[in-house]
Specification:
globular, 9 helices, alpha/beta
Length: 301
């Protein structure tokens, strides 16, 4: 057997769509690719960090068994602190599930990207506590409270860098693979799901400014809830930033998950999201391996 092609994997931000990252990792590994470096923002930081720690099997088993009521029990809601959710209960549950370590002790190069909200700067977290870094990177504005860490107030890395390629350039690999969670919408939507919001989102919406306790707070004329406007605004911004990054870095493989695959909060769709990510990765890798002069490809016999 020849050497395994090495990969720098860039995992983007995008809420529940980030569960597709699991399927991408599964497909890469099943084809013999060797992931040597991971950088991620928000859900990309979470899934990438858990994989680097060796806990992806346990995390996948756990998350695919979650229902919406289970998710609600993990959310420590607050009316102060700059967000709806503290995130402490969720992070502690993940620590119990997969363990904890310092980033520098992981077997591959890993970086979680966050944003210093006071200084307006991107921050790379590549040492220290893994779950402190993940918690900082996933602090979606107005959803999770900002995370105070190392003298800085940190929020979601996707605000400035939804597909953080640059941190992986420290590691020399055969291929750079990007998973973009804010791809162009497709029709029909990739996953079948109920159009109406159920308990989880309705309860969260009741805490938004102007909420009426009955869920959807509508913005005049648009018919959209305030939470929808916020999330769609973030997605639009992140899509623009992603296009800029792709033009600058020229990755070898881009796997795009359409932004209408699911809503930000629909973690109960874990199983179909993971399978969808695997299928998207398979299609992208088939194209790569069939192209003349591809730098990667499956292991040589």
């Amino acid at each position: 057997m020849g050497s395994r092609p090495t990969v720098s994997l860039v995992l983007g931000s995008g809420g529940a769509r980030g569960l597709a990252h699991i399927g991408v990792i599964r497909e890469l590994e099943s084809r013999g690719y060797d992931i040597r470096a991971i950088s991620g923002s928000s859900m990309g930081a979470l899934v990438g960090g858990i994989h680097a720690l060796g806990g992806l099997d346990a995390y996948e088993k756990w998350v695919t068994a979650l229902g919406q009521s289970d998710m609600l029990r993990l959310l420590d809601l607050t009316l102060s602190g700059g967000g709806l959710i503290r995130g402490e209960v969720l992070i502690q549950r993940l620590r119990e599930l997969v363990g904890e370590c310092n980033i520098e002790d992981l077997p591959l190069d890993y970086t979680a990207v966050a944003v210093d909200i006071e200084r307006g700067r991107e921050v790379w977290l590549s040492d220290g506590s893994l779950f402190e870094a993940i918690r900082a990177s996933m602090a979606v504005p107005s959803v999770f409270t900002p995370h105070a860490y190392r003298g800085r107030l940190l929020v979601d890395g996707g605000l400035l860098n939804p597909v953080p390629v640059a941190p992986t350039l420290r590691t020399l690999t055969d291929l750079t693979v990007i998973v973009d969670l804010n791809g162009e919408s497709v029709e029909p939507p990739p996953l079948q799901r109920a159009d109406n919001d159920t308990g989880l989102l309705a309860r969260l919406r009741s805490y938004l400014p102007g909420g009426n306790g009955n869920g959807a707070v509508k913005v005049a004329e648009s018919g959209l809830a305030m939470s929808d406007v916020l999330m769609r605004s973030l997605e639009t911004m992140q899509a623009a930033l992603t296009r800029r990054n792709l033009a600058v870095f020229w990755p070898d493989v881009v796997i795009s998950v359409p932004k209408n695959t699911c809503r930000f909060h629909e973690f109960h769709l874990a199983s179909p999201l993971i399978e969808y990510g695997r299928r998207l990765a398979a299609d992208a890798l088939d194209r790569l391996e069939a192209s003349p002069g591809a730098r990667g490809g499956p292991p040589s016999p």
